[in-house]
Specification:
heterodimer; A: about 400 residues; mainly beta; Porin; 16-stranded antiparallel barrel; two-stranded antiparallel ribbon; 3 helices; 21 strands; B: about 230 residues; Immunoglobulin-like; 3 domains; five-stranded mixed β-sheet; 18 strands; globular
């Protein structure tokens, strides 16, 4: 089916390119208001192992995404940016809405206030259609773990029982309703807060204070303690860029306060994360790598205790080569590994380790209309489905 | 005898006529007076000011991009639809340059003949990746750094849209012609097609993103035709 869909995509793309769809951003009012848009239509095989399900409960390999971004350039010092997004034909939301203030127009220093783009990590800045050569997202940015903000395991056994079931998880403490868990970093949603960004020569830096956490960006604060997050990159010549990110913030919901050990509140339970990344490019080659380590402190409520923060580590490496004009081949390999946790009967990683390999071919009909065909192999040491191979195709249009 | 004299007279007359025709054909002045090239000039007027090419809304970026000069998109091209006989002679290999500066192509519009080698130097501080997926020429020069240059042979007539794979707001046009009768307009729309042989032609005005405008025109020997074109 994905192959048939790919053929249909190519036919549609050829017709669309001939019918004069916008090929660049649409500007009105003398360039003061600029609109850009993206359409992703993705169709893949069924994913019974829920490897590609996201926080919105849709399969990233089966999705229709419509996105309209707007930038209102009120002056050299002030712009207002917004992005409306429709995912899976039903999740319609103001994905981004923030004001960008540039106090000194001649200097690259900006303050952004509102629902601001992610500060942490490298992947979020590469997911525009023309830059993501694959269809799937890296595990660290999408894969659902057995963690909830409003429901926590009573003890280590409780958490170990939920291994590999992050797509629908619930515990005895807190909300009784089972719902999707959290990813390591929920990059599909913007957080709310203040972000500052500057460029000084080869150094680019960003800092932000936001309401939510990496795993759970929020519109309003849910525990009284904001997250502090920062990122810096340095450009070592035109070919190499290195980056580092860090974040610290409370992640549990205050609705759990009454269930927590005496003297503690949700604001005492932090998610900490660090990451380093690199991008190298030359000629027709592009390579990226990123390592992320995140930890979550969980309440120690009953034996066997979850005494230490649970840790997840991710390593992502991807590459792309342009074979011919308009035709590229890409591949990504990434893993999620977890710290050991001792239960009543065994010591094992607190979540089921996951590995993914994905490769894709992209054919660009025009610069802004293209089709992708991807094959993905997922392996997991836990859960009902432990491995799966998935074929997916995607039509992309942007302006 | 009478018959011989008549034949001789007729032969002399024919010889004289042939000699006169041959002499006239061999006289370059006389030939030039009959077929001296003329020209067409005027203005290509745009109905509305062209939109500037804007960056996409940077909703995923923690800050705005750096300073970027706006691209002047007022230029168009005026050319003859059908070239006169003789215009398809062996093309002359020439070189043209489309530079990359301040995240834009300079010039934004280039018109060349088939066989031209177009250079794309990178005079910017960042990587660029010039490519085109146009039918007239598909190419991808890959990423290359400041001070480096790569070139493409334009070997087929047509419109070649040029982009950068890294900076989505960078775009330009190369129009490739099989004949030399074209001109890139000045910012005020003025153009001039010189050395056009006498004859009837279709003159085309082209501006990016707009339907082209066509007008029939007849060029007389040694004269200039004034022709203004209004793009819709």
């Amino acid at each position: 089916m994905p192959l048939l869909y790919l053929l249909a995509c190519l036919l549609f793309a050829a017709r669309a390119s001939a019918q004069g769809l916008p090929t660049e951003p649409v500007s009105v009012a003398g360039g003061r208001v600029v609109f850009g848009g993206e359409v992703f239509v993705t169709f893949g095989e069924k994913d019974p192992g829920w490897f590609n399900y996201t926080d919105y409960e849709y399969n990233a390999l089966r999705n229709i995404r419509l996105s309209l971004a707007t930038e209102v350039r009120a002056s050299q010092r002030l712009q207002v940016l917004a992005e409306l997004r429709l995912d899976h034909g039903q999740h319609f939301s103001a994905y981004a809405l923030f004001a960008r203030i540039r106090p000194w127009p001649d200097r690259r220093f900006d303050v952004q206030i509102g629902r601001v783009p992610p500060t942490f990590g490298a992947f979020r800045r590469t997911i525009y259609a023309y830059d993501n050569a694959l269809i799937g997202q890296p595990l660290a940015y999408q894969y659902l773990l057995a963690l909830r903000t409003d429901s926590v395991p009573l003890n280590a056994d409780d958490l170990l029982r939920a291994r590999g079931n992050g797509w629908l998880v619930g515990y005895q403490v807190g909300s009784a309703e089972r719902s999707p868990g959290l990813p390591l970093f929920k990059s599909n949603l913007y957080d709310t807060g203040v972000q500052v960004h500057g460029v000084a020569g080869a150094l680019e830096w960003t800092g932000a204070v936001t309401a939510g956490s990496l795993s759970d960006p929020l519109l309003t604060d849910n525990n009284g303690r904001p997250q502090a997050v920062g990122r810096a990159t340095v450009q070592l010549g035109p070919a190499v860029r290195l980056g580092a990110s860090g974040a610290r913030g409370a992640w549990l919901d205050e609705s759990l306060d009454s269930a927590l050990p005496s003297g503690e509140t949700a604001r005492d339970y932090r998610q900490d994360a660090v990451a380093i990344d690199a991008e190298v490019s030359a000629g027709r080659w592009l390579g990226r790598a990123e390592w992320i380590r995140a930890s979550w402190r969980l309440p120690a409520l009953a034996a066997p205790l979850i005494a230490d923060p649970v840790v997840a580590e991710s390593f992502i490496v991807e590459g792309r080569v342009r074979l011919w004009p308009g035709v590229s081949l890409a591949a990504r390999a990434d893993t999620l590994q977890f710290s050991d946790l001792t239960g009543s009967t065994a010591t094992m990683q607190w979540e089921a380790p996951v590995r993914r390999f994905e490769t894709a071919v992209t054919y660009a009909v025009t610069r802004n209309i293209g089709a992708k065909l991807a094959w993905q192999r997922n392996l997991r040491d836990g859960g009902r489905v432990r491995h799966d191979s998935l074929l997916a195709s995607q039509l992309v249009y942007w302006f | 005898m009478k018959a011989f004299a008549a034949a001789l007279a007729l032969s002399a007359l024919m010889l004289a006529a042939v000699s006169a025709v041959a002499a006239a054909a061999a006289d370059p002045t006389a030939r030039a007076q009959r077929s001296a090239p003329g020209g067409i000039r005027g203005r290509l007027v745009l109905a509305q000011a062209p939109r500037s090419n804007e960056r996409r809304p940077e909703v995923a970026s923690p800050g705005a991009g750096g300073f970027r000069e706006r691209t002047d998109r007022r230029a168009g091209v005026v050319y003859l639809e059908q070239a006169p006989r003789g215009a398809f002679d062996e093309p002359v290999r020439v070189r043209a340059v489309m530079d990359q500066q301040n995240e834009r192509f300079e010039p934004h519009l280039l018109a060349v003949t088939v066989g031209t080698m177009v250079e794309f130097p990178n005079s910017d501080r960042t990587y660029h990746n010039v490519f085109s997926l146009s039918r007239a020429k598909r190419f991808d020069l890959g990423r290359y750094a400041t001070g480096k240059s790569k070139s493409v042979l334009m070997d087929r007539p047509g419109v070649v849209r040029v982009f950068c794979d890294i900076h989505s707001h960078m775009n330009a046009f190369v129009l490739v012609f099989a004949h030399p009768f074209f001109d890139v307009t000045e910012p005020d729309g003025r153009y001039e097609l010189a050395n056009v042989p006498p004859g009837s032609y279709t003159v085309v005005g082209w501006h990016e993103g707009e339907p082209r405008v066509e007008r029939a025109v007849t060029v007389s020997s040694g004269s200039w035709v004034e022709l203004d074109l209004s793009a819709p």
